[in-house]
Amino acid sequence: MEKTQKDHLEDTLDELVEDKLTRFKDKLGETTFQGRKIAEGVIEKAKSVKEAVLLISTYSKKQAAEITVSILKAINEPELAEELEKKTRAVVNVEGVESSPPHAGVPGEVEEVIEDPVSLLRTHKVRLIEVLSKHPGLVVQGANSQGLLSIRKYRNIRSIRDPNEKTEKLLDHIIGKGSGAAQAFIDLLRTLQNDFPALPAELIAGVPGEVDEVIEDPVSLLRTHKVRLIEVLSNDHSLVVQEAHSKGLLSDRKYRNIRSINDPSEKIAELLDFIMGKGSGAAQEFIDLLRKLQDDFPTLPAELLGVNRN
Question: Using an 8 Å Cβ cutoff, are 28 and 43 in contact?
Fold first, then answer.
């Protein structure tokens, strides 16, 4: 099977060593093209596969490749840039109009507009308000945990009492941040399908192959289910913090620090962020711990608890 433009972008970014990948992300965060820009908070958390999806969802496939080539040259990676240019030309020759920029008036334009995350959120905004307003606190907390809201904006939206108004304010803010943030928000909604089963099917259709990659990695698993975990574990936050400490996942100092946080949701969010920051080993140990606590937390995500240990 021939590789797609997304595959070539992902392969190219995988070749970058850590410091060069950091420089690439910095440059990408500064890039604005035709009024579109990927949110820096989204870029910072993205791995190569996610960056490839963000690039293509924010720009057209051809533009995503051109921007990547330009940044590669700027960070002194001319060989990677040249190789990607060759692969891009090959994809254009095979796929033709698939790489055409949006709004160019050529066949395929409708498909690209439908895939644009900002347009998707605008199209389904009324339905989203109706669905998400059933449990607005969950989705606002999720958007905050994904870095889509500043602390000030999070507090502002959370303070709104009317569920419909709160949800609309959140959607308007996400849409206003551009395609990168909109795509990250759509990805968040995909992880909340069990909580919001009436979400529009067209909106939450996944990217082929992306789910399998996320499920294999314990850190990605925790990140994917973070919003749901915060909601579930907050019901008995002291228990899970105590157990994490007893398993050696928290130092005495970190344990005291987390235990001193008054808000249950913030306490669990801090715990999860710390565990994820320790890497795959700690993340897997925490998942194993959650399996042992299923009786205490019966609504834990089944997908999280059913993953095989690496």
Answer: yes
pLDDT in tens, the chain (310 residues): 567 777 787 788 888 787 887 888 777 777 766 556 665 555 665 555 556 656 656 666 777 788 888 888 888 888 888 888 888 777 655 454 443 344 333 333 333 333 578 888 888 888 899 999 998 888 888 888 777 888 888 889 999 999 999 999 999 999 888 877 888 888 888 878 878 888 888 777 644 333 333 344 788 888 888 888 998 999 999 999 999 999 899 999 999 999 999 999 999 989 998 998 888 888 889 998 998 898 899 988 877 776 444 4
Q: Which long-range contacts (CB under 8 A, 24 or more apart) does 20-24 make?
A: 20/75, 20/77, 21/48, 23/75, 24/71, 24/72, 24/75
Distances (CA, A) of 196 to 8, 55, 165, 187: 34, 28, 18, 14
Residue 59's SS3 state is coil
- DSSP code of residue 105: -
Neighbours of 172 (CB within 10 A): 12
In the beta sheet, which residues pair with residue 17? none
Is residue 36 classed exposed, middle or buried when 0-12, 13-18 and 19+ CB atoms within 10 A define those classes? middle
